[in-house]
User: Fold these one by one.
Assistant:
Number 1:
Amino acid sequence: MNININVLFHILFLNIPTLFFSQNKEELSILNSEIKNKSDKFITNKSFHKAQHFFLSKNWDSTLVHSMKQLSITKNEELKNYCHYFRGHSFNEKKLFKEAQQEFASISKNFYFYYNTRLFLGTIAIEKNEFQQAIQYFKDVEEINTPNIFGVKKSNIEHNLGICYLHLKKYDKAETFLLKSVKKQENEKDTLILIGAYGNIATLYYDQYKDDLAIPYFQKAYKLAKKTTDFDIKRRTAKNMAVVEENRKNYKSSIAYRKEFEKWKDSLNDQNKVWEVAKLEKEFAVQQKQKEVTVLEAENKLKVAERNKLFYSAIGLLVLLASGGYFYREKIKTNKIIVAQKGVLDELNATKDKLFSIVSHDLRSSVNALKTSNSKLQESLETKNFTELDTQLNNNSAITNGAYNLLDNLLHWALLQTQQGYFEITSMRLFIIVEHVAYNYKPLLLDKNISLENTVAKKDLIDADQESLKIILRNLLDNSIKFSNKNGSIKVYSRNTNDTFCELVIEDTGLGMTESTRLELLKDTALLSKKENEDIIGTGLGMQLVKQMIQKNKGKFNIESELGKGTKMIVSLPKTAG
Amino acid sequence: MDNINVLIIEDTKAQSDALSKVLNANNYNIVGVATSYKDALDFFYNNKVDIVIIDIFLNGNPDGITFAETINVVPDASRPFVFLTSSTDRKIFERAKLTQPFSFLMKPFNELEILYAIEMAVEKFYAQNDVFLSDEEDTVISKDYLFIKKGKSLKKVLLNDIIYIEVEEKYCNIITEKEKFVILISLTKILDLLDNAIFCRTHRNFIVNTEKIIEIIPGDNLILLSGGHKATLSDTYKTIIKKIRTLR
């Protein structure tokens, strides 16, 4: 008998959570959504809105606080009912049954969810072993065939009633309710509840020593349990079978059941352990993974940093290389330029040296000629040979003229090289300048009996620096006279073939020159140092000066010549604009 | 027609002698040869000088430029001048150039060059460029004188000596108390340059020195001038009567 009670106890525990289970999970959500729909009209009340929100999100403590706030300020009965309902539910969830009972009891009868509150009260009564009270609540609900019992199946109510009667040992009533509920549950095919229900019925019969009726239900429960995966149920049904077989003195099968019971118990534990281990393993694995991830992250960071470092250093190297290459090339370029310049400078220096030697040679011969001439002069003076004196003086003046011209050219050449000379381009009449220069050559022309004609148009205006233009003309005239034969003629005239340039032509009927000499003369830097004709050809300094001065005056220079017939020196100078 | 008075500032006697010789040969009148800056100023302010020929370097200093700068301070008293120099030093030139109007002559120079330089100085000074070299004109008009090119040299005529000018196409007959000569100048230019308070047009071809008018006979369209000269007065220019205080 002792064992019997034990069995009953187990089965009761099996049952009640089943009821709660069904109400909590599947159907409470239906109930809750229904509550939400119905109570939404009150959400303009701030506190109620919060209470409802927290109720639906199962935050029971906050629900209690805000519903209390709402209760203290409202007088609307329906709103109050909802608040009481939230509070009762919350207290129930927190297992504060007494407070829950109070809250549910304060709900008025016309509350939309009134019967749900009754059911809550019923289950609470069962929890508190007040079975008589519980029967009262359940009967209220069961008798009224109302559809408004959200989330609760009729079978459950009958089941609960059966359990209550079972506890009160009113077996006949318990039997009717349990059988009623089993019938319905069989239809609903809820295996877990059905196993509990079979167990309860079996216990019912067993308590009344109706073993023949009880045993098939135990077996039914056991067989059904075999199909489930729930170890706990398997264990309980096996244990019940073992107790039953033991009482029937059928020890052999009892031991078998007992063993099975142990097995399920073990496997339950095992399962728990396995789960725990699995959980631990999982946690461990997760930790391991986490560690790996962090390690990988760190590695990645390191790699990225390293890659960046490499990248930047590569760029730096490239820039260094490029700039190095650039500077190297620049250096080579400048070196080339320097070498070229050096060549030019060397050449120029050599020319200069040569020039100096020629000039000094010329000067020395001139001065020497004067010296000898002077001694001759003294001689003539002593002998009073005046005709001889006259020719000698003329000769002297010619020598000094030549030497002076040479020195003058040298001076201007030096000034030109050092850029010290005054240079100002102005507009002037070409005719006048030619006249002025030619005036100095009158004695010389007379001496050689050369006629000079200046037929430059008086209106020809050109842009030039007066002094350098005079130097140009002086040298060109000097040359023309030098290379003219006696009784020759020199013509100076202008040609207006161009809009921007005025061509001044100095034409003589003298020696002329070969093509090679002409080209040589027109060359930019060459000084004519070859002395083909000791008496006539000079240093070339004059021509050099002419070319440079013309260039400085932005003019052009050309020579037309025929050997033995004469030469045309052509100077093109820019016309005065407008 | 008078010769032009030239002041020479030159410290080297040989050169000043040569210059004097050339200028005298071309009918220029040398009023003096100064050898220093101070002398030069004395000569300049105590004589009637028409042109100054200045050697830039006097005793090694560029006092010639200083002289030019000094006489330029009083514009009315200033005269045309020509710089002589043997130096082509750029700095000296830059400084000399500031004494506008600037004309210079490089030593050594010949006769043509010095005469040309003097003409250029006169043209530039009176801002009537390109007169003496052109074929169209030969006269520069200053406040007091006509500078006329005669042959190779310049002559001057005091404006106050002119009695009247008779225009004949491109030529102008200048009639003074003593002489009568022809110059080349355009009518518009001469009218423009003469002081029109003194010289008035009386006829298409006549410009009369109002100070030389003795009698105006409007009925005969005649103006009697000093020295027995006569000029024509046309109807167009009869307003001249109002301008002149006359005794009737």
Number 2:
Amino acid sequence: MTTETTKGKYNVIGTRPIRHDGYDKVTGRAIYGADIKLPALLQGAVLRSPHAHARIKSIDTSAAKALPGVSAVITSADFPGAHDTLIDLGEGAINFRYASNNVMAGDKVLYKGHPVAAVAALDKNTALEAAALIKVDYEVLKPVSTVMEALKPGAPIVLEDLEGQDLGEKIDGQTNQANHIRHEFGDVEKGFAEADIVIEHEFDTAMVHQGYIEPHNATATWDEEGRVTIWTSTQGSFPTRRQTAGILRLPDSSVKVIPLEIGGGFGGKIPSYLEPVAAILSRETGRPVKLLMERTSVFESTGPTPGTWMSAKVGVKNDGTITAATADLRFDAGAYPGSPVGAGMMCVFSCYDIPNTRIDGYDVVVNKPKTAAYRAPGATQAAYAMETVVDEICQKLGMDPLEFRIKNAAKEGTRRADGPIHPIIGAVETHEAAKASDHWNTPLEKNGSDGKLRGRGVASGYWFNIGLKSAVTISVNEDGTVALTEGSTDIGGSRASIAMMAAEVLGIPAEEVRPHVADSEGIGYTDVTGGSRTTYATGYAAHDAAQDVVVQLRERAAKLWDVEVDEIEFANGSYQSKSDPELRLSHKELASKLGSTGGPVIGSASVDPEGAGGAYSTQICDIEIDPETGKTDVIRYTIVQDVGTAIHPSYVEGQMQGAVAQCIGWALNEEYFLNDDGAMVNSSFLDYRMPTSLDLPEIETIIVEVPNPGHPFGVRGVGEVPIVPGVATVANAIHDALGIRLRTTPMNAGSILAALKAKK
Amino acid sequence: MPEFDFAQPTSLNDALDLFAADGEVRALVGGTDIVDQLKTGRRNADMVVDVKRIPELQRLELTDDGLHIGAARNLTDIAEFPPVVSDYRGLADSSLLIGSWQIQNRAGLGGNVCNAAPSGDTIPALLSHDTVAVVASKSGTREIALSDFFAGPGQTVLQKGEILVELVLPLMQENSASSYLRFIPRNEMDIAVVGAGSFVQLNPSNNTVLKARIALASVAPTPVRARAAEEVLEGNALTDDLIEMAAVAAVESATPITDVRGSAEYRRELVKVLTRRTLGICRDRING
């Protein structure tokens, strides 16, 4: 079901053409990172730490180097040692020195799977055999795995040189607390005093992984001029260039990144892991080197989203007005600082208009892989705390949870708890659409078959979305088609949506735009595909580049007809003289005359727009639980989301459904299960237990369109907010079914059964 | 994956020659377990022998002395074999739970048995049917009761040079039925947190249990028989109360551990639930 606010407004936007890269992908022709083959290619392998925390006393590579077929063996000694510089990757910042340390451990290993050495050899088996011959002498140290353990006095210290901060003050001595920040507004004590009901709870969530299907990969050459070329699947060729160059201490311009098709990222393919290692192996061998991760390393050595400890406290009056709220969000960053706690703080209260708020956020290092962005990083955890407390308040008030959300909804002009004032947003419209949905208006039969118990949950979420830099060029072909070059790697159908925006401006069908993702030397600087920014910002650039084409085509028409440019107007895909209706050419006709009017036309734009516009999603979930086993099945799920304008509704719905699938897994089964030594023991798809198609219902989508005034077509980012309320929605449904509130994820069958027994 | 030699013999004698050779020789049927184990170094091999082309290992036949299933016969064929569909239903239940359709089309029953995972889904069903394993080597064949076949996680009593040729399930008697259930947190593509296979034969005149067999997966180093629960059942009328008593008694045979798939306490609870449910299904199947 779509609320068709764009209906009739556009010719191309809002339609569902076949994606431009569709045939290549479904036939297997598309070239992914693992498919790349180069002359004289060597195969690499990475040796990784079996320990969660250990000091490296020595590494003996002599036996590995002596193995026939081995071309090079490297350790951190072969890295230049990156500078202590913090850079923003668009969805999370990194310090180059820590990033270098993360791709190849220095004097300590900080998590199981931390790379300690790498090999290049004639074939993969030889490389693996050589890696097994490397002797590493470890002094095993006690690991620390959770935020609350890491914050205890006397906890094992993860980073001995970490300078911890607390509310702007440097912490004396060694600590695992990288930072503690606070947003405070109004008077929370006064606000709670005015409340009739105050609810406060604590939460623990497990670290979870994005679970993209394609493992990380990188192939590199380091040539005689000191120039590095990287082939990889990445969420951004420019951020990969910057990270690789920073770790290798090369100028950015010495590194060229050629992005290949990407089999999922969800934020996890923003950081570089293999690229600098492959480059150094190439430097040592003079040949191209390819590195591929296997699934175990994807889980153990790339960036999941944090495990957390959180508390949330909310006060309301009997009429349902929220008077105050506080939250304490403590996120594990993994082995190096930089958890998304800041983003969690920006989102935790942002569905609501709350006069008095205080939010504390802690960024804490632990002996787990360095976290990375995962779809609205930090917001899903925060919403789990806030939205389950809100659900309990609604239950106490006897108030419809959607009515409560509408009553307290953030609106244009509401101050977000961390400072910004909301522009035009669609929170109320989203809740209203949920209230009007078939799902909400269909009563749930509480008793299922065979004694199963059913429940319905509802929750809402917010994500701020980002803009950042994008570039697009559009070349007009003589046959009237256009080639559109962009720098945004396509992880969610963005080629189609960006091409459609150009087509809309040019007045041609989407199929006549040929979108192409260029390498880092084929297009102007473009930030990461992440932060829900691509359709927004790269689409903005496509709009502006297409406008540039229109300006130039008007000039060509003026030249052709020998009139002033001001005489030419562009309307409905045609260029025409204002004074002489006989002078009129379609885009296609005019394109055929470019060769005789000055040569090809190329339009371009480079943008850095600031009006990304936040987005809301409200979700309704019905579950059925077997009270004898604790097993939960999701039997109906509806996601409602304000998308601004749905450029290609199919890919908008795909983002909504995909995010729901991920948060159902997050809620019910997924976790980094660590043994007593702090090592992950379920690093396979078998035991990590993401949902399969048989574990998911048909996910119903309701698109709400409150156009974003900060975009020429009203686009809001759509990829991230759909995951935000999901875990809370499932938790609230479990409560409705069983009368039990679970405040630890995963809410798996064992924990449900244990809670049921405890209740009896 | 480390390199190894590979052979595809078409006769049992040729295969036995290969298995008698020096070094580690591994059998390949569907490859579901062994390929992954070789890749990840959990098992090693100097030679891998694809045993799917050996006629004896593809046998699927009901004779006067029972149901003969060749060790390399795929799970789909077995689950669709009419006598299995009508009588050996616990085996059909379990065969259709393993992996996905694609895996069931490829994976062999003998592979599931010889992999000897504590969680092997077909094993409790086979144990509940008093299955006998027929193994061969160059020095001849021998029969081993399947309940004596497992030596530990991933370990069988097969000697160097021996391979599993077929599994023989005794003929089904009147008024008997079997059933297998497992618990997984998802709905497919998972491994049993607990599995339970039950077999019941009733005396139709007085509803008493003539014979009961219960076997459990994922609660001990090998699949185990729940003998205490069997004793509770045999000789008594199969009432709901008796089923509940047997379900409680089955927990005595479980020595589960806590791991990523579930806690020991949770597994004990599941033993009770699944035993109760499989016994109820057996009763329903007998009563038709």
